[in-house]
Amino acid sequence: MSSPQRQNAAQYRGRLFILTASQMGLEPIRLDHIPAGEPVYLTVDLDGIDPAFAPGVSHPVPGGLLSRQVLDLFHSFHWKLIGMDVVEVNPTQDINNQTSILAARILHEGMGVVDS
């Protein structure tokens, strides 16, 4: 993280939770700090996914999350998903639309758990 990002993280400690791929390893993503039934807006930044699964991003970094980890997150929801977005798709860097397809799949999984 940059200095301003570290400052923001410190300022909003208790409201902002940063989980890195290296902290999680190959384990499923766990967001147990969110109380059950809590309304959540979820942003999925594709730069955090390993470029083997999402090559079409502006800042690919090997060692990111696996696409399966991100997709499985939607099956462990215990809160109320009220909205979401997927960011950082860069079609000019994509290979065979692989990143765009993953982004669409993530949104599809999210639509499946939205509480109407």
Kindly summarize this structure in a few lines:
Helix content is 31%, strand content 13%. It is built from four helices and two strands. The termini are far apart.
How is this structure best described in words?
With 116 residues, this protein is of the alpha+beta class. The protein has a domain at 36-116. Helix content is 31%, strand content 13%. It is built from four helices and two strands. A two-stranded parallel ribbon has the order 1-2. β1 (39-45), α3 (67-73) and β2 form a beta-alpha-beta unit. The longest helix is centred in the last third of the chain and has 16 residues, at 98-113. The protein starts with a helix and ends with a helix. The relative contact order is 0.18. The mean pLDDT is 90.
Computed structural class: alpha+beta
Please give the radius of gyration in angstroms. 15 Å
| Mean pLDDT across every amino acid position | 90
**Helical residues, percent:** 25-40%
Strand % is 5-15%
Based on CA inertia axes, which overall geometry fits?
globular
Largest pleated sheet: 2 strands, parallel
Order of strands, main sheet, comes to 1-2
Distance, first to last CA: 36 Å
Number of β-strand runs: 2
Q: Unreliable runs, pLDDT <50, ≥5 residues?
A: none
Order of helices and strands: HHEHEH
- Specify the number of helices: 4
Short descriptors:
alpha+beta; 31% helix; 116 residues; 13% strand; two-stranded parallel ribbon
